[in-house]
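Entry 14: structure prediction run for MFS transporter. Input pasted below.
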Amino acid sequence: MFANFLMWGGFFAVIPLVTVHFVGDLKWAAASIGLVLGLRQLTQQGLTVFGGAWSDRSGPKPLILAGCLLRMAGFVWMGFATTLPVLLLASLVAGVGGGLFDAPKNAALTAVTRPQDRTRMFSLMSIFGNLGMVTGPLIGAALMGLGFRTAAMAAGVVYLLAALVMGFTLPHVKPQPTGGGQFDGLKVAAADVRFRRFTLVLIGYFILSTQLNVLVTLKAFDLAGAKATGPIYALSAGLAVLLQYPAVQYLDQKISKRANLMGSVLLVASALGLMAFVQTFPALLACVALYSLGTMTVFPAQQTLTARFAPPELVGSYFGFSSISLGVGGAVGNVVGGILLDLGQRLGFPDLPWLALFLTGVLTALGLKWALKGLPRNPIGSGYIMKGPQEKN
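Run finished. Output tokens:
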């Protein structure tokens, strides 16, 4: 949990500042920075597909540690980037690091939790991540006074610390032997028609969720300057820290996971659509609050449903395959967000991006209703074995 706090804090200490520094300060085109952020997202989630399968064969811990070190290198390199090709390469390295630790981290959490506790534990993991999301932008904004390079290097050091924490504390888990090939689990996940539909439909949601880093950040910059990034991330994550756990517990008792996920996506879409009418920074913060109420329940619901889809011995592979939705959606969202913003300005129709995002959310919610129809409610085991003292060697 503490390492997850560090990883989210390090990420959000620098990623919002990429947009602010290169677009706001250096006046690069918004579409070019959308390309940078999209490449990182696509690289990370594309590799996560294989990272989950690797964790089913080797265990999650080695991949998590290697990923943290590569993420550190990528973020530090960003601080020294002065041209678009160099920034793209640094983003690529950072994305590879994330691809190594993303699915294995979820598989490790699944391995050490009982099925009936899984939603609660994913919620707690998200809360610690949101604590990092609160502190990261505030620290990053403060470090921006010393320059973007300083902020990027500090974020890299945080990932080194996270690697040290997990190196000493993460329980060693080993996968149950399946006797298949390295990527047989991915083949099973890809052949699961219902899970494949679920993964593809969620692309729409992740197009929406990435806009906090792109369109929402740029709108905040226009309304209140560079220092606005700290408050919007602090509000979003702070609400999640305060309300996510009780909200998840309440919704678990009242509605199904499918209804939870559909309603959350519609709430996020509505919040982004309302931003078309925002003219002041307080009004923007109100929309961010509504946006956060939607996003805070998506992660536990999505991860719990993914674990429910997966056979016990292929949890890592299913988490890996599910990352396709975040990879494609994040890449498309980052790139298209910048393109729509530039296009709306050229056409004299600044509401274009917000209208497009709202319609995307409505279609995604309808798609989830179709994709999850008939999914069994019974939870499953983890598919991993904890190593006892007698197995240390």
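Notes: The chain has a mean pLDDT of 81. Will compare against the previous run tomorrow.
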